[in-house]
Amino acid sequence: MEPSERYATAADGTRLRWTSAGPEHPPAAGPPVILCDGIGCAGYIWRALAPALAARRRVLHWNYRGHGGSERPSEPEAISVAHCVGDLLSVLDEAGERAAVLVGHSFGVQVALETARQAPERVAGLVLACGSAGHLLDTFQDRAVASAAFPYWRRAVEAYPAVARFLARTVIPSEVTVRLGQAYEANARQLSPEDLRIYLTDLADVDSPLFVRLLASAAGHDATGHLPEVRAPALVLAGEKDTFTPVRLSVAMHQAIPGSELLVLPGGTHVALLDQPEACRERIERFLSERVDPPAPPAAPRAAR
């Protein structure tokens, strides 16, 4: 069954698109999961995982403001990690869910961790995939280049927004970019060019000034100090060959979160959820079953004969 499309209203009036799939009131399954994207993404990363999880539990997915089907905020500066946390809680409220397992990819890891800091009672569990606890530009490809160059890029985008939009929509989903992505950032043997092209097209569709403002907020955000205080069950997923968020960041998160679990996917990239979907699905479902879902009730004793 296809996910149903719905809308929630953020505290500042921004209209947020979200979807619901799977049984809304499953009799045996545990809490729902809510999927949190990377910056510039609109949900394609969950193409394989979401339907599998929805076979027995409710799966919510939502778009950040200015992404996918969600509105851009009326105030241009109203785009930050804090706004994303508030929007996530608005979606949970609209869905009628007290708590959910937050499954974050890339920037979604920061959103999930900040939600766990601000509203721990709404977090039934955490799945942190291919992400960082914060300051993501400082560790991008394990170099300081992105962090040093970002202020100049941001100024150029905000000074010439029309040019930035044109270049983004022309260059990002181009054949050259797809080939470069397959060669250097994705597993070309496991991820098709079409998968990568759709992923990049979603990125190109986000308004460039909005993108850089959210990226600036993510670059300044850091939840590292909160990691030892996380009490929700947590699973950290990492790609061995991830150059966006190097595997050492995931290992450090795992070591800092009490009782967390870690899976490093051999040969996995930043889009491991797409290029190794079965391994990710199996490990996430096992984590939910063993660490999050309520235990099955004991079998009724057989009547004596």
Fold and architecture overview:
The structure is a single chain. With 305 residues, the protein is α/β, with parallel strands linked by helices. The chain has a domain of 213 residues: Alpha/Beta hydrolase fold, catalytic domain (Rossmann fold), CATH 3.40.50.1820. The chain is built from eleven helices and eight strands. Strands 1-2-4-3-5-6-7-8 form an eight-stranded mixed β-sheet, with helices on both faces. Strand 5, helix 3 and strand 6 form a beta-alpha-beta unit. The longest helix has 16 residues. The model has no long low-confidence stretch (mean pLDDT 87).
Sheet-strand content, in percent, reads: 5-15%
CATH topology of the domain at 4-143 and 220-292: Rossmann fold
CATH superfamily placement of the domain at 4-143 and 220-292: Alpha/Beta hydrolase fold, catalytic domain
Helix tally equals: 11
By secondary-structure content and strand pairing, the structural class works out as alpha/beta
Low-confidence stretches: none
